[in-house]
Amino acid sequence: xxxYIKWLGRIFLLSFLMNIFIELASRKxxxxxxxxxWGSPLVFLLNTMIILLTFTVVFVTxxxxxxxxxxxxxxxxxxxxxxxxxxxxxxxxxxxxxxLVKYAVSMATLYFTWMQIIFLGASIAGCVVLLVILWxxxxxxxxxxxxxxxxxxxxxxxxxxxGMTDGAMKTGLVAVHFGNIGDAFRTYGFPYCFSNSxxxxxxxxxxxxxxxxxxxxxxxxxxPENTYALSEDTKPNVIMIQLESFFDPSLWENNPVDYDPxxxxxLLQKNYPGGYISVPSVGAGTANTEFESxxxxxxxxxxxxxxxxxxxxxxxxxxxxxxxLKNIGYKAHAIHNNEATxxxxxxxxxxxxxxxFTPIEYMNHVERNPTGWxxxxxxxxxxxxxxxxxxxxxxxxxxxxxxxxxxxxxxYYCQQIGEMDQFIRSLVNTLRTREEPIVxxxxxxxxxxxxxxxxxxKNNSLFQTEYVVWNxxxxxxxxxxxxxYQIAAHVLDMAGIHEGTMMRFHQxxxxxxxxxxxxxxxxxxxxxxxxxxxxxxxxxxxNPYEATDLKMGIDDITxxxxxxxxxxxxxxxxxxxxxxxxxxxxxxxETIFVWPELVIAKEVPEKKMLDTEVSVWQIGRxxxxxGESKGYFxxxxx
Length: 638
Hints:
By secondary structure, the protein is of the alpha/beta class.
């Protein structure tokens, strides 16, 4: 037992040191670290105990020194990752980021030089090799492991830490849900907050949730159905454009540029409805602003840092603006000038009710900025193509990408949003020529990833961008600040459209009278829980929304003719792009894109061409097939 007591003291000291290192890596200041420990000693102790819990593995192994080194390496790695992420974005490292590793790898060259990537890779590989060497050479205690006693100590530690955590939550020492995840990590410490994000996912069952509660919400807090202020002939096309990292530099008091990079956006603000829009993240998290604006759901009720695109929406269809407008005769399209599989949009958009999705793999004539992102001007033609694809009204949700980081400096960022402003001008001028009614709402998804504080902002917030609603319907020039989960409801309300559960819920709150913000948020959580995790009682007990058979791209990719000549396979057709791959019986060949009507595969053996089905697949950089043409069958001669 003396041995266990000694080791308990050792791992407590190690846990204390790990906690110091992690918070220093996060705060990057000894003064800030000292203020945190001095101001919140009990919180610091709780975090130390959470770290200590992971070290208790030493009580059931003879390789105690190696175990301490391995666990320490894990916490050091997490602390370094958190510190690095905070350089590029305001959002700290959460468990949700573990689901985004493949995306982080694909963008590594945008944020690091090749020398830095090689150094990081070599460092990780070196650590792994070192751990293997230490596992073989580190001292092994000769003392017999008493597994029952060790397991008992671990159990006691678990109970102690869980009890401390529960007490801290109940007394308000730490929060269970985080309104501002960056502030939460700074206030409550990385170990607690990361652990919270690991185990706290989805929406917890609200108190009092049941059929009576949902019936009361349905009867009292939803705008009545069929109260439209429009006729069948005046349903407007509704276009939403989420502009990547787009915000007004003049809102930053330390703005170094002396010109207006977004003059057209400012002109629209003077002449059309708009205001501030509060978004759930800073510097990153595009998909979460997207989720709120499409579904009308508040992310505050989900786990810290959670991406519903990577959790519940992977297997559950969800009411959305797309589904709502389709109920009254619309077609729903999504457009994004980036890879289709980023944030799993190629599957999630089906769960959200979209009929078509046009990602970059289905676009031609794409221009890229100096950091490799597609320029947004490509989106004008794609939006018009979607409008022209149907005879009735359309809902088009567009996600831009040009403003994405990393930025060499703020001047470069301003150049990019300047070009985005030119895209907006081109799109609006194009839409002006159309006779059909149109409502176009544009907003930034989050602030760009620079190091700044809310005190430096004229609006005193890092979680606000701006939106504007261009239209040719003479909508009232209303200036209204909204949340991202309210933006669609607000725009549809102005257009006289009251369709969908979440939309009508928000619209009823807009018009009042209501019982206040607390009641609004309480019932919003109940609705979200019921729709995604509960009994769907607001729908009568069943989910009425089925995932769509999502069509990739607006235009079909077709094969008109296949020519085999001197080991070269020439495929003629329509709507090919640089992502088109010639496939023989489903196996992709190295393909050369010539123009939208021709792709070529060279050095194809003649024997592969006999009794073979030729098709053209759209395949992204991650090698995931997105769609294919109809097959063109080549029969054996004779």
